[in-house]
Amino acid sequence: MGPKQIVSALNTLLSIRQPVFLWGAPGVGKSQVVAQVARQRGLVLRDIRAVLLDPVDLRGLPRITSSGVAAWCPPSFLPHEGEETQGILFLDELNSAPPLVQAACYQLILDRAIGEYHLPDGWSIVAAGNRDKDRSVTHRMPTALANRMVHLEFDAVLDDWLSWARQSGIRQEVRSFLRFRPRFLHNFDASSTDRAFPSPRSWEFISRIMDAAPAPDVEYELFKGTVGQVAAAEFTGYLKVWRDLPDVGQVLENPLGAAVPAEPAAMYALCEVLGLLADETTIEALAAYAMRLPAEFGVLLMRDAVCRKPALATSEAFARWAEANAEVLL
Fold it and tell me: Is the pLDDT of residue 187 over 90?
Protein backbone atom coordinates (compact mmCIF):
# COMPACT_ATOMS: atom_id res chain seq x y z
CA MET A 1 0.00 0.00 0.00
CA GLY A 2 1.16 3.52 -0.81
CA PRO A 3 1.19 6.39 1.69
CA LYS A 4 -2.22 7.74 0.60
CA GLN A 5 -3.81 4.31 1.05
CA ILE A 6 -2.08 3.92 4.41
CA VAL A 7 -3.50 7.29 5.53
CA SER A 8 -6.99 6.23 4.46
CA ALA A 9 -6.66 2.86 6.20
CA LEU A 10 -5.36 4.47 9.40
CA ASN A 11 -8.27 6.90 9.47
CA THR A 12 -10.69 3.97 9.22
CA LEU A 13 -8.98 1.95 11.95
CA LEU A 14 -8.54 4.92 14.29
CA SER A 15 -12.26 5.64 14.10
CA ILE A 16 -12.95 2.25 15.69
CA ARG A 17 -9.75 2.22 17.80
CA GLN A 18 -8.52 -0.97 16.16
CA PRO A 19 -4.78 -1.62 16.80
CA VAL A 20 -2.70 -1.70 13.62
CA PHE A 21 0.88 -2.62 12.68
CA LEU A 22 2.69 -0.94 9.76
CA TRP A 23 5.33 -3.10 8.07
CA GLY A 24 7.89 -1.50 5.78
CA ALA A 25 11.53 -1.24 4.77
CA PRO A 26 13.84 1.18 6.61
CA GLY A 27 13.35 4.82 5.62
CA VAL A 28 10.06 4.30 3.77
CA GLY A 29 8.23 6.87 5.90
CA LYS A 30 6.17 4.91 8.43
CA SER A 31 6.72 7.30 11.32
CA GLN A 32 6.07 10.38 9.16
CA VAL A 33 2.71 9.05 7.98
CA VAL A 34 1.56 8.30 11.52
CA ALA A 35 2.57 11.82 12.55
CA GLN A 36 0.74 13.24 9.51
CA VAL A 37 -2.49 11.42 10.39
CA ALA A 38 -2.24 12.62 13.99
CA ARG A 39 -1.89 16.24 12.83
CA GLN A 40 -4.76 15.96 10.37
CA ARG A 41 -7.09 14.51 13.01
CA GLY A 42 -5.95 16.91 15.73
CA LEU A 43 -4.67 14.07 17.90
CA VAL A 44 -1.80 13.99 20.36
CA LEU A 45 0.99 11.65 19.25
CA ARG A 46 2.80 9.78 22.03
CA ASP A 47 5.84 8.16 20.35
CA ILE A 48 7.32 5.27 22.33
CA ARG A 49 10.35 3.34 21.07
CA ALA A 50 9.61 -0.16 22.27
CA VAL A 51 13.19 -1.27 21.63
CA LEU A 52 14.34 1.03 24.46
CA LEU A 53 12.00 -0.48 27.06
CA ASP A 54 12.51 -3.20 29.63
CA PRO A 55 9.60 -5.59 30.29
CA VAL A 56 8.85 -3.95 33.65
CA ASP A 57 8.79 -0.40 32.24
CA LEU A 58 5.23 -0.61 30.95
CA ARG A 59 3.77 -1.64 34.27
CA GLY A 60 5.72 0.95 36.29
CA LEU A 61 6.94 0.87 39.89
CA PRO A 62 5.23 -0.55 43.01
CA ARG A 63 4.28 1.56 46.00
CA ILE A 64 2.62 0.88 49.34
CA THR A 65 -0.79 2.48 49.82
CA SER A 66 -2.03 3.94 53.12
CA SER A 67 -3.86 0.68 53.73
CA GLY A 68 -0.66 -1.28 53.39
CA VAL A 69 -1.54 -2.76 49.98
CA ALA A 70 0.95 -2.79 47.10
CA ALA A 71 -0.14 -0.78 44.05
CA TRP A 72 1.59 0.09 40.81
CA CYS A 73 2.52 3.57 39.60
CA PRO A 74 2.23 3.51 35.78
CA PRO A 75 4.99 5.26 33.79
CA SER A 76 4.56 8.90 32.79
CA PHE A 77 5.10 8.14 29.08
CA LEU A 78 1.71 6.41 28.92
CA PRO A 79 -1.34 8.69 28.56
CA HIS A 80 -3.43 9.17 31.70
CA GLU A 81 -6.97 10.25 32.47
CA GLY A 82 -7.21 14.01 32.91
CA GLU A 83 -4.41 14.72 30.40
CA GLU A 84 -4.91 14.85 26.63
CA THR A 85 -8.28 13.27 25.91
CA GLN A 86 -7.54 11.91 22.41
CA GLY A 87 -4.39 10.66 20.80
CA ILE A 88 -2.30 7.92 19.21
CA LEU A 89 -0.02 5.71 21.28
CA PHE A 90 2.66 4.89 18.70
CA LEU A 91 4.79 1.84 19.49
CA ASP A 92 7.58 2.28 16.97
CA GLU A 93 10.07 -0.51 16.26
CA LEU A 94 7.87 -2.89 18.24
CA ASN A 95 9.23 -6.02 16.57
CA SER A 96 12.80 -4.87 17.30
CA ALA A 97 12.05 -5.07 21.02
CA PRO A 98 13.06 -8.25 22.88
CA PRO A 99 10.36 -10.93 23.11
CA LEU A 100 9.69 -10.18 26.78
CA VAL A 101 8.94 -6.53 25.96
CA GLN A 102 6.63 -7.60 23.14
CA ALA A 103 4.90 -9.95 25.58
CA ALA A 104 4.38 -7.03 27.96
CA CYS A 105 2.49 -5.29 25.14
CA TYR A 106 -0.04 -8.13 24.72
CA GLN A 107 -2.52 -6.92 27.29
CA LEU A 108 -2.01 -3.23 26.46
CA ILE A 109 -2.79 -3.82 22.78
CA LEU A 110 -5.71 -6.24 23.19
CA ASP A 111 -7.36 -5.11 26.43
CA ARG A 112 -6.14 -1.48 26.40
CA ALA A 113 -4.82 -2.13 29.89
CA ILE A 114 -1.77 -3.48 31.63
CA GLY A 115 -2.00 -4.41 35.29
CA GLU A 116 -3.94 -1.63 37.02
CA TYR A 117 -3.39 0.86 34.19
CA HIS A 118 -6.13 1.54 31.60
CA LEU A 119 -5.59 3.38 28.33
CA PRO A 120 -8.03 6.35 28.17
CA ASP A 121 -11.01 5.83 25.85
CA GLY A 122 -9.97 8.48 23.31
CA TRP A 123 -6.63 6.85 22.55
CA SER A 124 -5.71 4.39 19.77
CA ILE A 125 -2.67 2.14 19.37
CA VAL A 126 -0.53 2.10 16.23
CA ALA A 127 2.68 0.07 15.96
CA ALA A 128 5.33 -0.11 13.26
CA GLY A 129 8.50 -1.96 12.40
CA ASN A 130 10.80 -3.24 9.69
CA ARG A 131 10.28 -6.55 7.98
CA ASP A 132 12.40 -9.59 8.88
CA LYS A 133 13.84 -9.66 5.35
CA ASP A 134 15.18 -6.10 5.66
CA ARG A 135 18.25 -7.18 7.62
CA SER A 136 17.30 -4.88 10.47
CA VAL A 137 17.44 -5.82 14.13
CA THR A 138 14.13 -7.63 14.54
CA HIS A 139 12.66 -10.40 16.62
CA ARG A 140 9.96 -12.64 15.26
CA MET A 141 6.63 -11.37 16.48
CA PRO A 142 4.78 -13.96 18.57
CA THR A 143 1.58 -15.08 16.90
CA ALA A 144 -0.40 -14.18 20.02
CA LEU A 145 0.69 -10.54 19.60
CA ALA A 146 0.38 -10.52 15.80
CA ASN A 147 -3.21 -11.75 16.02
CA ARG A 148 -4.14 -8.72 18.08
CA MET A 149 -3.56 -6.24 15.23
CA VAL A 150 -4.43 -5.43 11.62
CA HIS A 151 -1.26 -5.67 9.49
CA LEU A 152 -0.56 -3.24 6.62
CA GLU A 153 2.37 -3.37 4.17
CA PHE A 154 3.85 0.09 3.51
CA ASP A 155 5.47 0.74 0.11
CA ALA A 156 7.05 3.90 -1.28
CA VAL A 157 4.99 5.43 -4.14
CA LEU A 158 6.55 8.23 -6.17
CA ASP A 159 3.44 10.35 -6.78
CA ASP A 160 2.49 10.23 -3.10
CA TRP A 161 6.02 11.18 -2.05
CA LEU A 162 6.20 14.04 -4.57
CA SER A 163 2.92 15.44 -3.25
CA TRP A 164 4.31 15.33 0.29
CA ALA A 165 7.67 16.73 -0.84
CA ARG A 166 6.08 19.79 -2.49
CA GLN A 167 4.20 20.60 0.72
CA SER A 168 7.24 19.96 2.90
CA GLY A 169 9.71 22.18 1.06
CA ILE A 170 11.90 19.43 -0.42
CA ARG A 171 14.16 21.07 -3.00
CA GLN A 172 13.11 21.23 -6.63
CA GLU A 173 16.30 19.51 -7.77
CA VAL A 174 15.55 16.44 -5.65
CA ARG A 175 11.93 16.18 -6.78
CA SER A 176 12.85 16.64 -10.42
CA PHE A 177 15.62 14.02 -10.26
CA LEU A 178 13.31 11.41 -8.75
CA ARG A 179 10.76 12.01 -11.47
CA PHE A 180 13.54 11.38 -13.97
CA ARG A 181 14.92 8.33 -12.11
CA PRO A 182 12.00 7.01 -10.01
CA ARG A 183 13.73 3.75 -9.13
CA PHE A 184 15.99 5.71 -6.80
CA LEU A 185 13.14 6.84 -4.54
CA HIS A 186 13.60 3.66 -2.51
CA ASN A 187 16.27 1.25 -3.65
CA PHE A 188 17.04 -1.01 -0.72
CA ASP A 189 18.90 -4.28 -1.18
CA ALA A 190 19.08 -6.34 2.00
CA SER A 191 22.02 -8.34 0.61
CA SER A 192 24.13 -5.25 -0.08
CA THR A 193 26.96 -4.25 2.25
CA ASP A 194 26.57 -0.52 1.46
CA ARG A 195 26.03 1.61 4.54
CA ALA A 196 23.83 4.15 2.74
CA PHE A 197 20.95 3.61 0.32
CA PRO A 198 18.28 5.82 -1.27
CA SER A 199 14.98 6.08 0.59
CA PRO A 200 12.31 8.73 1.12
CA ARG A 201 14.01 9.58 4.41
CA SER A 202 17.50 9.87 2.94
CA TRP A 203 16.29 12.12 0.08
CA GLU A 204 14.89 14.45 2.72
CA PHE A 205 18.41 14.49 4.21
CA ILE A 206 19.84 15.32 0.76
CA SER A 207 17.49 18.30 0.50
CA ARG A 208 18.61 19.57 3.89
CA ILE A 209 22.28 19.09 2.97
CA MET A 210 21.77 21.17 -0.16
CA ASP A 211 20.05 23.89 1.89
CA ALA A 212 23.31 24.12 3.85
CA ALA A 213 25.23 24.95 0.61
CA PRO A 214 28.13 22.46 1.00
CA ALA A 215 31.48 23.21 -0.63
CA PRO A 216 31.76 21.76 -4.17
CA ASP A 217 34.69 19.51 -3.22
CA VAL A 218 32.67 17.68 -0.52
CA GLU A 219 29.20 17.76 -2.10
CA TYR A 220 29.46 14.37 -3.83
CA GLU A 221 30.93 12.70 -0.72
CA LEU A 222 28.03 13.98 1.35
CA PHE A 223 25.56 12.65 -1.22
CA LYS A 224 27.33 9.28 -1.35
CA GLY A 225 27.23 9.00 2.41
CA THR A 226 23.48 9.66 2.37
CA VAL A 227 22.03 7.72 -0.59
CA GLY A 228 24.91 5.46 -1.65
CA GLN A 229 27.43 5.61 -4.46
CA VAL A 230 25.24 4.81 -7.47
CA ALA A 231 22.38 7.17 -6.60
CA ALA A 232 24.84 9.91 -5.61
CA ALA A 233 26.70 9.64 -8.92
CA GLU A 234 23.50 9.92 -10.95
CA PHE A 235 22.17 12.76 -8.83
CA THR A 236 25.45 14.68 -9.13
CA GLY A 237 25.34 14.30 -12.92
CA TYR A 238 21.73 15.49 -12.93
CA LEU A 239 22.65 18.55 -10.89
CA LYS A 240 25.17 19.58 -13.55
CA VAL A 241 22.36 19.55 -16.10
CA TRP A 242 20.04 21.39 -13.70
CA ARG A 243 22.56 24.14 -13.07
CA ASP A 244 23.00 24.74 -16.82
CA LEU A 245 19.29 25.04 -17.63
CA PRO A 246 18.05 27.72 -20.06
CA ASP A 247 16.96 30.99 -18.48
CA VAL A 248 13.33 30.45 -17.46
CA GLY A 249 12.75 34.17 -17.89
CA GLN A 250 13.45 33.80 -21.60
CA VAL A 251 10.99 30.90 -21.81
CA LEU A 252 8.23 33.03 -20.27
CA GLU A 253 9.05 36.09 -22.39
CA ASN A 254 9.47 34.23 -25.68
CA PRO A 255 7.93 30.73 -25.42
CA LEU A 256 7.89 30.26 -29.20
CA GLY A 257 11.56 31.14 -29.63
CA ALA A 258 13.25 29.96 -26.43
CA ALA A 259 15.54 26.96 -26.74
CA VAL A 260 14.18 23.47 -26.04
CA PRO A 261 16.74 21.17 -24.34
CA ALA A 262 17.73 18.06 -26.25
CA GLU A 263 18.51 15.87 -23.24
CA PRO A 264 15.61 14.20 -21.39
CA ALA A 265 17.24 15.00 -18.03
CA ALA A 266 17.30 18.70 -18.91
CA MET A 267 13.66 18.62 -20.02
CA TYR A 268 12.60 16.97 -16.76
CA ALA A 269 14.49 19.61 -14.81
CA LEU A 270 13.12 22.53 -16.85
CA CYS A 271 9.53 21.30 -16.57
CA GLU A 272 9.94 21.08 -12.80
CA VAL A 273 11.12 24.69 -12.60
CA LEU A 274 8.49 26.06 -14.99
CA GLY A 275 5.68 24.22 -13.23
CA LEU A 276 6.48 26.09 -10.03
CA LEU A 277 5.99 29.41 -11.86
CA ALA A 278 2.49 28.59 -13.07
CA ASP A 279 -0.21 31.15 -12.38
CA GLU A 280 -2.79 33.23 -14.26
CA THR A 281 -0.07 35.48 -15.71
CA THR A 282 2.22 32.72 -17.01
CA ILE A 283 -0.16 30.00 -18.20
CA GLU A 284 -0.31 31.37 -21.77
CA ALA A 285 3.48 31.18 -22.10
CA LEU A 286 3.67 27.77 -20.42
CA ALA A 287 0.99 26.31 -22.69
CA ALA A 288 2.76 27.68 -25.77
CA TYR A 289 6.09 26.23 -24.65
CA ALA A 290 4.47 22.90 -23.74
CA MET A 291 3.22 22.62 -27.33
CA ARG A 292 6.85 22.59 -28.49
CA LEU A 293 7.97 19.87 -26.11
CA PRO A 294 7.71 16.12 -26.76
CA ALA A 295 4.21 15.04 -25.75
CA GLU A 296 5.18 13.34 -22.48
CA PHE A 297 7.08 16.41 -21.30
CA GLY A 298 4.28 18.75 -22.33
CA VAL A 299 1.91 16.67 -20.19
CA LEU A 300 4.40 16.79 -17.31
CA LEU A 301 4.66 20.58 -17.47
CA MET A 302 0.92 21.22 -17.71
CA ARG A 303 0.11 18.67 -15.02
CA ASP A 304 2.52 20.44 -12.67
CA ALA A 305 0.94 23.78 -13.53
CA VAL A 306 -2.55 22.53 -12.68
CA CYS A 307 -1.33 20.82 -9.49
CA ARG A 308 0.10 24.15 -8.36
CA LYS A 309 -2.97 26.18 -9.37
CA PRO A 310 -6.03 23.93 -9.96
CA ALA A 311 -8.02 26.89 -11.32
CA LEU A 312 -5.71 26.96 -14.34
CA ALA A 313 -7.50 23.87 -15.66
CA THR A 314 -10.39 26.16 -16.67
CA SER A 315 -8.19 28.69 -18.50
CA GLU A 316 -8.39 29.15 -22.28
CA ALA A 317 -4.68 28.41 -22.65
CA PHE A 318 -5.01 25.06 -20.91
CA ALA A 319 -8.12 24.20 -22.94
CA ARG A 320 -6.28 24.91 -26.23
CA TRP A 321 -3.33 22.78 -25.16
CA ALA A 322 -5.59 19.92 -23.97
CA GLU A 323 -7.52 19.96 -27.27
CA ALA A 324 -4.29 19.78 -29.27
CA ASN A 325 -3.06 16.87 -27.13
CA ALA A 326 -6.32 14.99 -26.73
CA GLU A 327 -4.83 11.72 -28.03
CA VAL A 328 -2.08 11.80 -25.41
CA LEU A 329 -4.48 12.63 -22.59
CA LEU A 330 -6.94 9.81 -23.36
Answer: no
